[in-house]
Amino acid sequence: TKLTGHHHTMTTIRRFTCDDLFNFNNINLDSLTETYNLGFYLQYLAQWPDMCTIAESASGRSMGYMLGKAEGLGENWHGHVTAVTVAPEYRRIGLAEKLMSILEGVSDKVYHGYFVDLFVRASNAVATTMYNKLGYTTYRRVLDYYSGEEDALDMRKALPRDIHKKSIIPLPKPVHAWEVD
């Protein structure tokens, strides 16, 4: 997939590979980005390769990436956004939206999920606003999700398989992190 933007000529979006693990530090230096251990990334690349994508500039610099997975049982079968992050110098050009769109498409067409969900820090208004614009709504608040220090918002977007949009009906009260499956 190719994208064009205002301060770069061409962006390539392709499947994330093991080699990319050595070239994405410029993205992971952001304080809101969780950095995982090598085994974690490798598990995603092995189990859900079609849900792991990276955006690269024309010069080969990593611009942003997405890690996702398919999980759940029955009507809770869904695509999950584990991480979507864009390097600071490449923000506000629609890259996160493009990465999200790819994961939503794979969740729908390949995995036949009912919805896509993600967790975001309750204090991260910029991300929450972006997800709202992409059609995500808050399904529930998860208390003390981030290291017991901050709540998460579990945001969801129904996919075509969820005809009646049951998956996105908000829960009436918050849940604790240990209650999240």
Unreliable spans: 4-8
Number of helices: 4
Termini Cα gap: 34 Å
* Main sheet specs: 9 strands, mixed
The total of beta strands comes to 9
Task: Describe this entry's structure for a reader.
With 181 residues, the protein is an alpha+beta fold. It is 21% helix and 33% strand. The chain contains 4 helices and 9 strands. The protein has a 9-stranded mixed β-sheet, with helices on both faces. β4 (62-71) and β5 form a beta hairpin. Residues 4-8 have low confidence and may be disordered.
Secondary structure: elements and pairs:
Blueprint: E1 2-3, E2 11-15, H1 25-28, H2 38-47, E3 52-57, E4 62-71, E5 78-86, H3 95-109, E6 115-121, H4 125-133, E7 137-146, E8 150-158, E9 175-176
Parallel strand pairs: 5-6, 7-9
Antiparallel strand pairs: 1-2, 2-3, 3-4, 4-5, 6-8, 7-8
